[in-house]
Design brief:
The chain is built from one helix and 19 strands. Helices cover 3% and strands 63% of the residues. The chain is globular. The chain has one helix at 13-20; strands at 27-34, 40-48, 51-62, 65-72, 77-84, 90-98, 105-111, 115-122, 128-136, 140-149, 154-166, 169-176, 181-189, 197-205, 210-220, 225-232, 236-246, 249-258, 267-274. The protein has a 19-stranded mixed β-barrel. Pfam families: Porin_3 (PF01459).
Length: 276
């Protein structure tokens, strides 16, 4: 694939991941193994309150095709097939769920040195169609996305974004919710290894005059341990600690508290991911 501006979903992704990724208030345990034939098996057990759920997923790669099959405790089978380079600089992703066939969809991505275009359609009689386009370079890009309902013949969404990325920093602005909201974010790496960073995000919804400011950071204590924290203007404080107990095997302890209502108990989460 070309080194172009990336997908529209990549606009603001680095700041978004730092503020949201790995934060959880559940108990999650997953273990991954690889067979000699190249099949990857992953089993996940999630405890949320008093609810237990288990997922088993299998990945198999053959030439330019990747097959991913996931089975949950409700006997739902989700299959995703990703094929690269059917045509030059393209990727096709087909997904379908049994027994819910209405969730099936097909996505085609095209990558160019100065543009990226994606088209997604649900595989049913009157599908929802999503289109995205991003123009520019890896340094600066402009993008837009739109969703269209062929049944009601109306747009379900249209969003616009701009991103500026440099080796040690990145900034983005996204006009979303049919131009009813705007989100601006900025991330600054604090070291050459990019294991420590600071981030800020400002969100405003015009129709409700809602404003939310969030700040956060990532700090690498050593090469095995990192700490993250975030605080928003609504008083929500979150923090987590990640430690690599074995190569590629990570334990994460996270928590969240509402500083404006301290009488509520804080929520904690624990995640353990074991990989070969």
């Amino acid at each position: 694939m070309s080194k172009g501006p990336g997908l529209f979903a990549d606009i603001g992704k680095k700041a978004r991941d730092l503020l949201t990724r790995d934060y959880n208030t559940d108990q999650k345990f997953s273990i991954s193994t690889n067979t000699l034939s190249g099949v990857a098996l992953t089993s996940t057990v999630l405890k949320k309150g008093v609810v237990h759920a288990a997922d088993v997923s299998t990945q198999y790669k053959y030439r330019n095709a990747l097959f991913d099959v996931k089975i949950d405790t409700d006997s739902n089978v989700m299959t995703t097939i990703t094929i690269t380079e059917i045509l030059p600089s393209t990727k096709a992703i087909a997904s379908f769920k049994v027994p819910d066939y209405n969730s099936s969809k097909l996505e085609v991505q095209y990558f160019h040195d100065h543009a990226t275009i994606t088209a997604t359609a649900a595989l049913k009689q009157n599908p929802l169609v999503d289109l995205t386009a991003t123009l520019g370079s890896p340094t600066i890009s402009f993008g837009a996305e739109a969703g269209y309902d062929t049944t009601s013949r109306s747009f379900t969404k249209y969003n616009f974004g701009i991103s500026v990325t440099k080796p040690d920093k990145c900034a983005s602005i996204i006009l979303g919710d049919k131009a009813d909201s705007i989100k601006a974010s900025y991330l600054q790496h604090l070291d050459e290894s990019k294991r420590s960073a600071a981030v800020g995000e400002v969100y405003r919804k015009f129709s409700t005059n809602e404003n939310v400011i969030t700040v956060g950071g990532l700090y690498a204590v050593d090469h095995l341990t990192s700490v993250k924290a975030k605080l928003n203007s609504n008083g929500k404080l979150g923090a987590l600690v990640q430690h690599e107990v074995l190569p590629k095997s990570i334990v994460t302890i996270s928590g969240e508290i509402d500083t404006k209502t301290l009488e509520k108990y804080p929520r904690f989460g624990l995640s353990l991911a074991l990989k070969p």
